């Protein structure tokens, strides 16, 4: 599918299976989400631009590759986005962070905003929006609407699991924003849950409900 990358690396798929398993503990779920975020983060940063800098190795001077431009921004869609954020910050420690607080209204499935804080100069930075679940896509679309309103123009969306319905809606709303995911599942159920899915990512991460 255009604009959508499914990361089929064996380690990603293995860890995803353990995340899906309802017997996996809260501690195990958090640890695996952090591990898998490193592998997904590798993929979503694949096209970062490089420049060169002059360094001195112990043997000689060389022109060595280094990341170009301003530090990127990880925009975490709260709460569950934080499960991916921590590993991503291990990968790119100098990254800036935006927090977008949204919850899904259980009846309407609309995203309700309760918090937003982001670096002021989003226009100059690559913004990678992170949330493990893309279900109806209401949350992802609202988060990206808000980030664009605040100036972001260069965005990517990183998730763990997506529903085909959500991917379609997201691509219509934000065709300029590529999606990286570990899997696209079968369908959404009538309560807006991804099937087979992994349940409620926030609840499984934090042991709530
Ligand atoms: C979950 C998930 C996404 C959203 C996806 O968050 O982390 O943000 O649902 O569903 P959608 O694509 O239909 O919008 P939730 O609202 O349950 O909040 P939480 O992360 O605080 O648990
Ligand atoms: N949010 C989740 O955490 N899980 C789903 O299956 C759908 C939305």
From TrEMBL:
GO terms for cellular component: cytoplasm. InterPro entries: PRTase-like, PRTase_dom, Upp_B, UPRT, UPRTase/APRTase. GO terms for molecular function: GTP binding; magnesium ion binding; uracil phosphoribosyltransferase activity. The keyword Glycosyltransferase applies. Residues 6-208 form the Phosphoribosyltransferase domain. Pathway: Pyrimidine metabolism; UMP biosynthesis via salvage pathway; UMP from uracil: step 1/1. It catalyses: UMP + diphosphate = 5-phospho-alpha-D-ribose 1-diphosphate + uracil. This is Uracil phosphoribosyltransferase. The gene is upp.
């Amino acid at each position: 599918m255009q604009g959508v990358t499914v990361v089929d690396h064996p380690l990603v798929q293995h860890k995803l299976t353990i995340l899906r398993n309802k017997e996996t503990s809260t501690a195990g779920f958090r640890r695996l989400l952090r591990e898998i975020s490193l592998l997904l983060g590798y993929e979503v940063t694949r096209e970062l631009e490089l420049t060169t800098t002059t360094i001195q190795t112990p043997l000689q001077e060389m022109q060595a590759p280094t990341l170009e431009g301003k530090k990127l921004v990880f925009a975490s869609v709260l709460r569950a986005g934080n499960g991916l954020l921590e590993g991503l910050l291990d990968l790119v420690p100098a990254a800036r962070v935006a927090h977008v607080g949204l919850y899904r209204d259980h009846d309407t499935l609309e995203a309700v905003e309760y918090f937003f804080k982001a670096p002021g100069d989003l226009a100059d930075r690559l913004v990678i929006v992170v949330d493990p679940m893309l279900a109806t896509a209401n949350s992802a679309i609202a988060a990206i609407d808000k980030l664009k309103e605040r100036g972001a123009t260069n965005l990517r969306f990183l998730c763990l699991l997506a529903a085909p319905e959500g991917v379609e809606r997201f691509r219509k709303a934000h065709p300029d924003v590529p999606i990286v995911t570990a899997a696209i599942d079968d369908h959404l159920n009538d309560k807006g849950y991804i099937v087979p899915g992994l349940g409620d990512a926030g609840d499984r991460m934090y042991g709530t409900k």
